[in-house]
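Hi D.,

Good news: the full-assembly prediction came through. Inputs first.
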Amino acid sequence: MPESNNQRITSVGIDIGTTTTQLVISQLTIENTASGSLVPHVEITDKEVIHRSQIYFTPLIDRDLVNAVAISKILESEYKAAGLSPEMIDTGAVIITGETAKKENAKAIIDALAGFAGDFVVATAGANLEAIFAGKGSGAALYSSERHQVVVNIDVGGGTSNYATFFEGKAVDSSCINVGGHLIEFERHGDRITYISEPAKIALQITGQRLQVGERVTLPQLRPVVQAMAASVVEVLKTPLHSDLTQKLLMTPPLQLGHQIRKVMISGGVADYVYAENQPTTMTEVTAFGDFGPLLGWELKASLKSAGFVLEKPNETVRATVIGTGTQSVNLSGSTIHLQETTLPLRNVMVVSPFSAIIPETPLKIAEIIRNEIIRLQMDHSEGVVAIAMKGPRTMSFSDINSLAQGLLLGLQDYIVKDKPLILVIEADCGKVLGQCVHASANRLLEVICIDQIEVDNCDYIDIGKPLMGGRVVPVVLKTLVFNR
Amino acid sequence: MGVENNELEKVIIQSVMEELARKGLLSQKGKDHMMSAAMMDTPIVPNLQSEEMVTFPPQEEMQIANPFNADAVRAMKKLTPARIGIGRAGTRPKTMSLLRFLADHAVAQDAVFLDVSEEFLQRMNMMSVQSAAASKDEFLQRPELGRRLSEEAAKSIAEKCEKNVQVQILIVDGLSSSAIEANIPDLLPALMQGLKSSGIKVGAPFFIKNGRVWVQDHVASIVNCDVVISLIGERPGLGTAESLSAYMIYRPDENTVEADRTVISNIHKGGIPPAEAGAHLTDVIKQILSAKASGVKLNQQK
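Then the structure:
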């Protein structure tokens, strides 16, 4: 039984944002890190970015339509530059972020690219997920675990600012506000307004400014509305009581502020201007990219400092999200995997967490809870594959684990009949024995994936890739869309 | 004489305190407090009659008085069962740390010196035999006796155990009886279920008192099994006294060396959970059976 002790996989991250589109290709090393006398533990031990693309302006057909053809051309030429073909990509994610995610054909693009960009490339979208990837890519997650300090990463892009609070390396809070550097567009290096987005119109109205498309503006005319937007970004960090403008601009529920925040990191396209030495002094400098990003950066710094926050420098600024997407989106999980390889990869597996409190003692009661949850969610068995997620068995005793297995089989009877794989995700370290109990109780050959030691608390969907390391692990991508539901 | 000494002591304490207070190293309040303590005539004697249970604060509780970064201490404590972040009283450990240390040491000693209870063996419905070591003291003083069966044991195994099975499971007390009672009730059923549902023929597990790892070779020579697995109590430490190891060997004989054994260690509730270990051991045994080898020879085949 040949079992290599490490393997390298190639992962791609593609970020299609409001303003820019970019990709990175990284090589992940996965290894069994447990010593011979312990249960094997496979994890990602090294992440190396092997190719960074140019930063492209996101190709748009018109304001609401992303140009899918142009994007696939970008991918093609960047793969070529990296010396790779789509078949050589093992995993990764496409993330459509910011304002772009709202645009009408975003889903179609995701579908088109997921097929184009390698066999197992996951499509994800959603402001909260973007925030977390950005914070992992910027180094905020690592900072919080190395220094044992709470840090908030704010990824300020063209259309949105995405907050993710990190504590001991884990994202504990996230939010998104409709503030970005590209919400008002100008002639490049000029002072004439060419476009004002909806959120910018709200900000103008509330601050009593009257700027119109086609008008020429001076720096003193532009500054108040930018200051107001920067103040809204900072307000979310400070208090749950928000001004009218902040309330209107928030795109998700605000930060819950469960942890005291002192340190802040800024990533995204605007970040370089937050950390700049000097402020832009002319409209020509402000509109270097046809927007007001440089001014927003400076005003954000001023606003953060006057509110008493400490700014920390990120490792990555404009590429934080794409690096986070490419290197951080994949988890690995082992345990019991009895599956025909053709069943994988599985995309968009809905995660169901039926047990709110402690799991009951008897298989009958366990089955009842599962059935009720399925009725509550109005899930149709003919629909896609679901994963049943739980923290752990009632206790770690064999009899409780065995009861759990029997209860799961009983509760999912109708589902299993459809010849669908039984996917179980459990946080406690008992995946192998749970899988074994399911097999022993099933009395017939079932396709089972039982994954342990993965937290799916806040997760809505997962993708499961083809097995690696001689079938011992599968790559799992968790799609966390919201924290507070 | 005793009384005089006591008086002298008080005088010395008083002059030291006053000197410290004069130099500003001790507040007036602190001085008064210490003096009143020194003047107490009745020594504090613990009440030996009391059998009140002592409850320790949870291990993760912050013991450092004014931590610079409490989150960092908590994160580090989570990573290790070692006694870190326990604070100090001057140059000495705090009372609670010292008591905990002594208690853990006592638990470790109990694990070695106590026997696996009769009640436990009955509940698990296991036959019990003994090594050539007749008592705990002999077992600890003469390691070689724990490595083979007593004559009586060899006889009852030959009479009662099924021969020519694929797998024979032994439960051996080794250096921790506590490890046996803590882990076997969850490990054994998981292991038996795994082996049986894989269609592997298993002999009835039995218990060996005062046994060491090598006693498995003696058993294998009698029952003529392919794989013998010993679930044996590990030498207890101050972190846990409940850690269990599984030693497996494929067809041991007179040429067997230590490197021929495969081991999975650290089985306890804070390490590899026992039920999960049972499922994992099933996989390892299947590998050994198909490779017809264990230990380093097995790893070389991988």
